[in-house]
Amino acid sequence: MFQNHLPIGEFDIYNAKKDETVDIHIHVRKAKLSDNPNNDPPMDNVWRYIRKGSKEDGHGLLPVNLGPILNVNRNAPLNVHWNNDLSSGSMQGMPDMGNPGYLQSPPINPVPMDYMMPGMNGSVGTVAHLHGAKVLPGADGWPLTPLSFPCNPYGFPTSATYHYPNDQRACMLWFHDHGMDNTGPQVYAGLAGLYFVRDESDASLFDLIGGAAQEIPLVIQDRMVDCDYCCVDYLTGRPVNPADKTFDRPEFLGETIFVNGRAWPHHELSRKVYRLRVLNGSNARTYALALIDPNPWASTPIPSQPEVWHSDLLTVIGNDGGLLPVSKTLAATDYILLAPGERLDLLLDLTGVDPAVTGKLRLVNLAVNSLHNGDWPEAIFQTENDINTSASPAYVAASILKPVPSDAYDRTPLASITGIKQANILQFCLKDDPKVKAAALDRAKLDQILHAHADEDGFFWDGKLLTLPAGKTVARNRLVLLMNNTSQLNGASPYSGVDWQDTQIWEMQATGGGAPFAIPFYVDLTSANPAPGNPVAGQNYKVARATFFDPKTENQTISPQNPHYPALQPSSIKPAAGSYERWYVANIGNQQPLSAAIITQGGPAVPDMHPFHMHLVNFVVQRRFVLNPTSNGFVPVSHANTFDNEARHDTVRIQSNELLELLVYFPPGYSGRYPYHCHLVEHEDMGMMLHFEVS
Fold first, then answer.
1. In terms of C-beta density within 10 A (0-12 exposed, 13-18 middle, 19 or more buried), how is residue 81 classed?
2. Residue 126 DSSP symbol
3. Third-level CATH fold of 222-452
4. Which of 130, 182, 237, 504 is the most buried (most CB within 10 A)?
């Protein structure tokens, strides 16, 4: 562990010019997954985005399995010509194994299609989605407009040019595959890259910390690898029972943590300030990130109170939607949650660290309670109860940090972190270079930079929170339910009229006809300029829409014999461009009546955490509520380091039995149809995706 170096220079990093057209091709290729000189995969092991004219545009071994990294300037449009160079092939598990109507299977041991739910479509192509981008629908990566292979029977093109205006705040975006029902395996195969929108805020920050060379991208992913680190395996990360073809856990969770395409890498740092641009690019794993000294007893003599926790070296300055209005330095024992699709912009200040005392710092993941308890298969993240309690900062502070004789330190809690593979991410090795005398981070200048860029893209910073600009009002309230089938119901739902699924997403409307579905929260769904919602007992709603496709054709699938996707279910949410809406998004079970009495950790009504992602827009989390076990209703709740009312999101994690109030801004000049979905990509593939239509 920590034998590989952290790839940075190995990436194809390209600074795009205004109005340029960049050609990117999708190839099946060989890529290194390890620094081992013998790690030359015997066969193609990845799907990769390759920029035409780059050093990777050939037939040699690729240095990393991800990329490229594109840098663009704000308000400098870019065209990307996406090309699918993959071929046709047989989809595993399809009735006709030689059927040429499907895209070749990725080289990752994919799950056979006959293990999938009814109505899931085989892959007929790839779809490039620039996650977090403000773009017109034709460039958004609509999942039903794939780039297919030559001579495909569906009439899809093999290439398309997407126009990216880049008229948005400086931020870290990422592009990845968004193929209908196949996002999980196709992203896992390697179809992901980074896209940075830059403006004068970047120049100011680099001046503050000592230059652009201090920026380090960190793409965190989990994988299942073979013994030689030559290929990755998708099927073994989604344990299934071959006898009845059911999943023990439908989401992919891997045992090996990759950063920038290397397993558990290390990176050498000096006593400087670094900017860490962090992406959770995993399919389904949530990380609770903390910074520790993996060996606080290394110095001589051993200090009476060795420091273990060092998260206070981290200052959060941004997330999905760009910079925060004000910086947030973590406490030493803090962690920060990062769900799939979410990004963080961090400053790591090492100017006050003595390498002779703290020679190594390790970025760790505390969201491993399931592994600590010996669960098999490992459970998906649900709530902060899934943070490893025996390795929690409070527990360590009470045991390791207490002053006791040096030979009697209780090292068990630290071992519970470092002894679990999935709890380890990246190790920084600190070097003591006497020539390096960087100044400590100037927080006052930092906050001046952040504050100068606070009032952008539709939100106003009033000194305490991001809110509506003067004279603006909320046009509508919306209510969306994210649901796991916690009661394991079968057959048609009396509420939606369609079959219960393992994962579901419903758009709700005021009670009218149809069976009412009750939750203890009132939302005015009919008025213009409505008041905010509030907890009440047993408020009834009915389902406005529960499926992406028309329910009459929901179980039809695309095939050469039926060469088109099913008809869409029309959007029931139709916001106006330039408007603001409140979206109430609840992550609940399907049991009725919905009562907190049935909510017990580990019980039948504890749904998975869902990262809620909306295309096109940014939104601000205004309030959070949780279903309370004693009151049978929703009550306000807050979590540390969520930056509610301060951060612009395009993806936000909603923990089990929580309801979030989101202030959503639909930018002017952008109309059409856009998806929204859970960013546990297997849930997205299983139907946890709907769409809104901007007019």
1. middle
2. B
3. Immunoglobulin-like (2.60.40)
4. 182
